Amino acid sequence: MIDDKFNGHTMASGIKYDASTLVASSNVFPIGTVLLVSNPLVQGTPLEVVIMDFAPAAQLALSSGAFSSLQIDYSGKGSVDVQVVDYLKKRPRLLNDN
Question: What are phi and psi for residue 4, nearest 5 degrees?
Fold first, then answer.
């Protein structure tokens, strides 16, 4: 999970981090990649998250908003199923883009 202490800081994408939004950081997926993420332990609707930052120490780090929406224990780690929806556009997809 991305630490809430980064709330309001600018991410590598140029967007300010808001812990309540459905964003993530990764050292596997490039910025701008859209992922469909679900919790295999809880039946529910998968979430669409956008990679907005680089995480040097994590394959995938979700915002606390995404973390809580997926009903993952707040221990800081959890297993999720990931499906790539849109891989690396020329510019990061902004949260309000359609």
Answer: -65, -15
Instruction: Please name which of 27, 32, 38, 20 lies closest in space to residue 80, comparing C-alpha atoms.
Output: 38
Do 25 and 58 touch, CB atoms closer than 8 A?
Answer: yes
pTM higher than the cut 0.85: no
10-residue block means of pLDDT along the chain (98 residues)? 80 90 91 91 87 88 88 73 78 52
Using H for helix, E for strand and C for coil, what is the string for 17-81? CCCCCCEEEECCCCCCCEEEEECCCCCCCCEEEEEEEECCCCCCEECHHHHHHCCCCCCCCCCCE
